[in-house]
Amino acid sequence: MVLLKAALASMGITILPTSVCHDALRDGRLVRLLPGWTAGSISTTILMPHRRGQLPSVRAVVEFLAERLAG
After folding, report:
1. How many other C-beta atoms can be found within 10 angstroms of the C-beta atom of residue 38?
2. DSSP SS3 for 47
3. DSSP line for 2-66
4. pLDDT, tens digit, for every residue of 26-54?
5. Is 27 exposed, middle or buried, given 0-12, 13-18 or 19+ CB atoms closer than 10 A?
6. Where are the domains positioned within the chain?
């Protein structure tokens, strides 16, 4: 968020995930300088016990994260 705020304040350029700066790009507050370039992708892994021993709250958090990160 610090890098996003700095870029919005015209303090320089930065590399940000699209999910962080989507609204600013859409609104024209930020401009993508290298549209053909990407920094790569990130892989996320969650390790958890078998469903039988799993708390419902844990399952709810995992499902929430899966939906949010599927993006």
Report:
1. 9
2. coil
3. HHHHHHHTTS------HHHHHHHHHHTSS--S-TT--------------GGG--HHHHHHHHHHH
4. 999 999 999 899 888 777 788 877 777 78
5. exposed
6. 2-34+41-70
